[in-house]
Amino acid sequence: MKTMARLVKIHTEDNVAVAVSEIKKGEVLYVEGQEIIAATEIPAGHKIALRKLEEGSPVIKYGSTIGFTTREVDEGEWIHTHNIRTGLGELLEYTYEPVTPQEKEKREAGFMGFMREDGKVGVRNEVWIIPTVGCVNNIATALAREAEAFLKGSVEAVAAFPHPYGCSQMGEDQEYTRTILADLVNHPNAGGVLVLGLGCENSNIDVLKGYIGDYDENRVKFLVCQESDDEMADGLMLIRELIDRAASMERTRINADKLIIGMKCGGSDGFSGITANPLVGRFSDTLIASGGTTILTEVPEMFGAETLLMNRCENEELFEKTVDLINGFKNYFISHNQTVYENPSPGNKKGGISTLEDKSLGCTQKSGSAPVKGVLAYGEKVKETGLNLLSAPGNDLVASTALAAAGAQIVLFTTGRGTPFASPVPTVKISSNSRLAQKKNGWIDFDAGELAEGADMEEISEEFFQYILEVASGRKVKSEEAGFHDMAIFKQGVTL
Question: What is the pTM of this model?
């Protein structure tokens, strides 16, 4: 019978290890042949000192500094927010020191998806209702609810995407709303779209059409509620037309090089960086080896680990774009008189994450080892195959919506504490610990916690890759089964 390790040391240079389960004071523990006696109780997912550290010593995890001790720490002692501080400053200067990432051997893979007339590929065939302004949110929701009765053929759902914006906005703030809404209108997971306007809003339908660009009049319909005698009747008539057209569309075999997958984490814990996030990193490398594309976002959770991404940029131009990505977000914090490193969250801390460096080094595990091929502004669509970095905040709903708007057909969401939310596209919840997967079976789609219990990474990563191909082929995730479709737009600037 295999004995589960009590401690995980991530990198050979680390001076801390992570407790796999709760450790009592006085327990004798072993890690890589070293005997450690726990000097204090250590909660599961939290760090234990592998040797005595003087005040001001660097704390090393993932082979990198995650902070500095605020007092002397004994061997076997619990290291957390009570005795470690961040080492982060604000704006930094960076030097391009390129590394040669290890790219995986190419492989063939495919899935059953919907090939659209414009050459894009959807993994769902849904009808979406996109409000131009928050004033018509309730109408959009009511239309979606009633239109479910019309479902037929391959149409899988009618979904409304309410949001509070579209009017009383200015400048960049208004541009964000218009760009994200247009991106969703053009998303290939929607076989049909009803754009629902009020009529007097800043981002009205006539304005939004300029952002949507060329569109198929049979796929995209528009309704201005103030111009309709009965917006519910007119809206349902248009949705029936969209469903009738989309119902005959069929899934066909498509190469995995058409997949674009977004990567995000939230409610992270001390296991996220050693189970779920590295698993997603393996997936990213495998999909890229199959010709596909992945997108990593939540820029504030790159702070402290950004140089690892910068040095994987394929060229100096991408390096400079990544520098601008990082410093641009730091300036956003500074311009609002906020601390750049005011992170991690209370839930992160409870789960064992002590500093932003600790969080970021775990977060960026999702990027795998492939070179960075593209850097995207918020609202920009992906153009380059391979690994892309996307400008968006850490907020779960905002970042996941940004991933969908950039072109992701699926979002992979790792979590140590759990969340029921969805995004505009299938949102796969991957638990970092098995306790969460067992407790919240209605939320979690895949348990990566087995990796902390000795499961083989190669086996689990292959199982996970095949599972995502099944999701791309129509297998519903838990949030879809619950009927959840969420979206959120990045708020910037003044509200009139």
Answer: 0.95
Tokens of 466: 């095949």
* Closest to 23 in 3D by CA, of 13, 12, 36, 11: 36
Buried b vs exposed e over 357-382: b needs ≥16 C-beta within 10 Å?
Answer: bbbbbbbbbbbbbbbbbbbbebbbeb
Least confident of 148-152, 238-242, 249-253, 339-343: 339-343
Find out whether 272 and 416 touch, Cβ atoms under 8 Å: yes
CATH 3.40.50 fits 126-248, yes or no: yes
| Each residue's pLDDT tens digit, 58-113 | 999 999 999 999 999 999 999 999 999 998 877 788 999 999 877 788 889 999 99
Question: Can you read off the two tokens belonging to residue 426?
Answer: 């299938």
Q: pLDDT grade, residue 4 (50/70/90)?
A: low
Residue 426 half-sphere exposure toward CB, CA atoms < 13 A? 31
Class of CATH domain 7-85: mainly beta
SS (H, E, C) 206-221: HHHHHHHCCCCCCCEE
Amino acid identity for residue 487 in this structure = M
Provide the residue ranges of all domains of the chain, joining segments of one domain with +: 7-85, 126-248, 255-481
